Amino acid sequence: MSNKEGSGGFRKRKHDNFPHNQRREGKDVNSSSPVMLAFKSFQQELDARHDKYERLVKLSRDITVESKRTIFLLHRITSAPDMEEILTESENKLDSVRQKILQVAQELAGEDMHQFHRAITTGLQEYVEAVSFQHFIKTRSLISMDEINKQLIFTTEDNGKENKTPSSDAQDKQFVTWRLKITPVDYLLGVADLTGELMRMCINSVGNGDIDTPFEVSQFLRQVYDGFSFIGNTGPYEVSKKLYTLKQSLAKVENACYALKVRGSEIPKHMLADVFSVKTEMIDQEEGIS
Predict the structure, then answer these.
(1) What DSSP assignment string belongs to 124-152?
(2) 3-class secondary structure, 183
């Protein structure tokens, strides 16, 4: 029984039939040829773009971490005696986050932001969530995208002037303006994540005997849910995907308000959190079955 070529073993490559010394060998490529010079420039451009992308990913990771820490800090307001002290500390943390965003804006100077958007979107969404959470605690309202973008305009001293001397006056200093605009998708996704933090804030408030905050949060979440419902499936896929989580958060807060309104007078304040946690587990089980 003869083995056919390709039925077993390794198939010989065509160039293996030629002696080794007779294989095709090109002449030394002229490194100064126009084609090689063009490809070298392409290589340098692609390497620079890849390095910039990696730097933006690292900055986005730092922005995400610092924004999360700010959110954790803001959750302490429900149990802290001094709200202003925590708000001041959170503002300092957000200022440090904005310094990271300044570095992002400097990296994107002269570049098309949408080519690098995937590298920074996670951090920007988390920043929107932190800023909107702080704004809600202060004003019980939703911060607009324009207000967020106004905070992302930076003025720095221009250190790139060669004719600059150390003895130059402050009036002679030249300044550069940097800005970074949050995209509508980043804003919507950040607000969608905010609803989860407000639901946690509602739980903490109930546990501390605060019966006013849950009703304020419920009314606010209803307005946000109505706004997202208008977008529906016409918006980006990520936005419609988070609509289900938003609906869950709204249901939990509304059930907490129901328990407070109907049975609040008969339940001691220190037991409200237990009643709310039981209702939350019942909601999760019903949603898991359906």
Answers:
(1) HHHHHHHHHHHHHHHHSSPPPHHHHHHTT
(2) coil
The residues near 200 (Cβ < 8 Å, ≥ 6 apart) are 75
- Distance of alpha carbon 58 from the chain centroid: 13
Q: How far is CA 58 from each of CA 47, 124, 197, rounded to the nearest angstrom?
A: 17, 13, 25
Residue 129 assigned to a binding site = yes
- Tracing tokens 């003025």 back to the chain, one arrives at 155
CB 165 within 8 A of CB 154: no
Q: How many Cβ atoms sit within 10 Å of the Cβ of residue 200? A: 14
> Alpha-carbon Rg of the chain, whole angstroms?
29
The CATH code of the domain at 47-157+177-182 is 1.20.58.190
Structure tokens that stand for 172 in this block: 């002679």
Cα separation, 257 vs 213, in Å, equals 10
The token pair that represents 37 in the structure block: 């010079």
Q: State the Cα–Cα distance between residues 78 and 84, nearest whole angstrom.
A: 12
Would you say 51 and 75 are in contact if contact means Cβ atoms under 8 Å apart?
no
3-state secondary structure 93-109: HHHHHHHHHHHHHHHCC
197 is in an annotated binding site: yes
- The answer to whether 195 and 119 have CB atoms below 8 angstroms apart is no
pTM (two decimals): 0.76
What's the residue count for the chain? 290
Asked whether the domain spanning 188-263 has the same topology as the one spanning 47-157+177-182, the reply is: yes
Round to whole Å and give the CA distance between 250 and 198: 9
Q: What would the pLDDT profile of 202-252 be if each residue is shown by its tens digit?
A: 888 877 777 788 899 999 999 999 998 888 777 677 887 788 888 888 888
For the chain, the structural domain boundaries read 47-157+177-182, 188-263
